[in-house]
Design brief:
alpha/beta, Arc Repressor Mutant, subunit A, Rossmann fold, seven-stranded mixed sheet, two-stranded antiparallel sheet, 9 strands, binds 1,4-dihydronicotinamide adenine dinucleotide
Length: about 220
């Protein structure tokens, strides 16, 4: 398998989609699939698929195609879904609660263990099986539970400060929803800034310019 550093960001970006489509094929009990069939499902070219998967040593066999379960498993390993990264959510407002309830962390290598909010009125309220804690408890919690992923669902004004605090507590991956482009200058820390509004703007751009959407695909599973 190639080292992540040598794989282009665009290939890494496509991997979750391969993983999702292959998972769907597994549910339909499809055992193997050719790059042509997969390309039709995913609205990619067959050569793009072969090129992408070759980055990791290639999993296909001439005349056979891809073994769906093995490919799903291998891509899962590359993505790290076989891991169990302790995960906390900071900010238990509308977004934090929605993410806690609707994102399936477990199938993505993460385990949600704590939710924190600065508002004392929310302390003790439960979101699914997890009780919201006050942010004053973060230090103790991190010491005991050693989470590595933080989901930031707080206003932008507080984001850098809370992120710096979390780095000192061992957090090394940020899924950042606050409207602040978080950057952390540390080689072992990764940040994924998410702006749903940017995605909407891409859509309006396409609508505005009559551009057919790329990769819209079909056969989408209900994948939260
Ligand atoms: P909200 O107002 O319902 O919840 C924010 C929560 O964060 C509140 O409960 C507040 O007490 C808490 N909070 C504030 N500072 C905190 C701190 N330092 N530590 C811990 N908790 C803190 O807002 P909502 O709708 O949940 O949105 C949260 C943030 O996400 C907002 O800034 C919003 O603009 C942003 N957002 C981003 C989206 C995206 O696509 N990136 C989509 C929707 C919202």
């Amino acid at each position: 398998m190639a080292k992540n550093g040598t794989i282009s960001a665009s290939v890494i970006k496509r991997l979750p989609r391969y993983y999702r489509f292959l998972g769907e094929l597994m549910k339909q009990e499809v055992e193997r699939i050719s790059s042509r069939e997969l390309s039709e499902m995913m609205n990619l070219t067959a050569s793009q698929i072969r090129q992408d998967l070759n980055c990791f040593g290639g999993f296909g066999m001439q005349g056979y195609g891809y073994h769906v379960r093995s490919l799903h498993e291998e891509i899962g390993k590359i993505l790290g879904v076989d891991r169990e990264f302790g995960t906390i959510i900071i900010g238990a407002g509308n977004l934090g609660k929605a993410i806690a309830m609707h994102i399936n962390f477990e199938t993505r290598g993460c385990r949600l263990t704590g939710i924190f909010d600065v508002n004392p009125r929310l302390t003790g309220e439960t979101v699914g099986p997890i009780a919201i804690r006050h942010t004053d408890e973060i230090e103790q919690f991190c010491k005991e539970n050693k989470p590595v992923v933080a989901v930031l669902c707080i206003p932008k004004a507080n984001t850098q400060e809370i992120a710096d605090r979390l780095v000192k507590l061992g957090i090394r991956a940020f899924w950042n929803f606050s409207h602040y482009d978080l950057t952390i200058e540390h080689e072992n820390i990764v940040v994924e800034n998410v702006h749903l509004g940017d995605s909407l703007l891409t859509l309006t751009y396409r609508a505005n310019n009559n551009i057919a959407p790329e990769n819209s695909g079909n056969g989408q599973e209900d994948s939260n």
